[in-house]
Amino acid sequence: MYANEKFKRKIQLAFHVLCAFFFIVCSAAVSAVEIKSEYQRFSIITKNLVRQSLSDEQLIAGVSAAYTVLRARADLPGALPKLTHSELLLLFNAADEAAFYSSSVMHANDMLAIATELARKGSLDDSQIEKVYSSLIAARDYKSAGAWRNLHHTVIRDATLEMYGSTANSSTEPTELVLAGGHLKRIEFRLPEGGFVVAVGNPQCHFTQYAVEDIMGDPVLKKALAGRMKWISPQQRNESLVPFHDWNRRYLDAPISQAYLTSEWKMIDEWQTPTFYFFEDGVLKSKFAGWPREGRKELLRDSMSHVGIRTAP
Q1: Is residue 109 within 8 Å of residue 77, measured between CB atoms?
Q2: What are the pLDDT digits (tens) for 236-279?
Q3: Contact at 8 Å (CB) between 44 and 69?
Q4: Quick one: 48 and 127 in the same domain?
Q5: Which of 140, 141, 282, 301 has the fewest CB atoms inside 10 Å of its own CB, making it the most exposed?
Q6: Based on the structure, what is the number of domains in the chain?
């Protein structure tokens, strides 16, 4: 069943990417590029993609495809010294939006290049400096992020955004960033044998908060899921890790970490928060998304039961 669903998603993904690409190419002027009109086309396509009920993979691919065409027509990064302040701002905003959805190194590096040119022209502001820094962190380019921070003598509100230690990983297993002693540490994650639940969440998502409060507030569910549940946040841009610290202090038995790279977590195909994945001996059996204010504990119990996690004697 899941193989067929993944095949369908790949077909849909290819369709949306091609539509985004051909819409821009066919509608754009063949003559000299006008940054403003190209940015407007990118913005329209991005808004249309966001309005659709697309998977995360489809949305990221669509926005990235639209940005790639804009980038090529604007001749980035080579044309940057020739552009005006207003044109640079439009391109910075486009790269910022693409980086927001994708956490891509390429998009973050484009933001860095454009911001560097803005600085050379004497028109870089503090908000842009912080956006470049947080985008580089989201893309896991810690070296560039640290150099950027030092260059601009930026006082970052949460210095522990940067990971300490090696980022190398030769394993085929996914990795996560955990809060350890006030710092971020990258560790490997392996699905255990038996029934197990992976919950995709975000400390700042209200629906995620409803879910963890309902689950940890239910003694039976809390006991049944002890050692059988993993809370993981998507790879994303964080202005601060305070929400993660607060969560882990409040829910000692349900700590949350962040995916180092979402692309490593191949067993997760949707990063909508919250989404619950139910595994048995490492094999995905079912999933469901969402947790309204009234809760979904009955659905949770049924899904747990199907992978051998019992909530009753």
Answers
A1: no
A2: 888 788 899 999 999 999 999 999 999 999 999 989 999 999 99
A3: no
A4: yes
A5: 282
A6: 2
Integer Cα distance of 311 and 305 in angstroms: 8
Statement to judge: residues 142 and 257 lie in one domain: no
Residue 42 belongs to a domain: yes
| Tokens matching residue 14 | 């290819």
* Structural domain contains residue 258: yes
Q: Output the pTM of the full model.
A: 0.81
| In a shared domain, residues 186 and 121 | no
Interatomic CA distance for residues 143 and 162, integer angstroms: 9
Q: Which residues pair with 289 in a beta bridge?
A: 275
- The two tokens of residue 36 are 């403003």
What span, in angstroms and rounded, lies between the C-alpha atoms of 184 and 260? 10
Which residue range is the domain that position 281 belongs to? 175-306
In a domain, 164, yes or no: no
Give dist(CA 161, CA 75) in Å, integer.
32
Contact 93/74 with Cβ under 8 angstroms?
Answer: no
Could you tell me if 192 and 147 lie in one domain?
no
End-to-end CA distance of the chain: 32
Peptide bond connecting 274 to the previous residue in cis, omega within 30 degrees of 0: yes
Q: Which two tokens stand for residue 55?
A: 């998977």
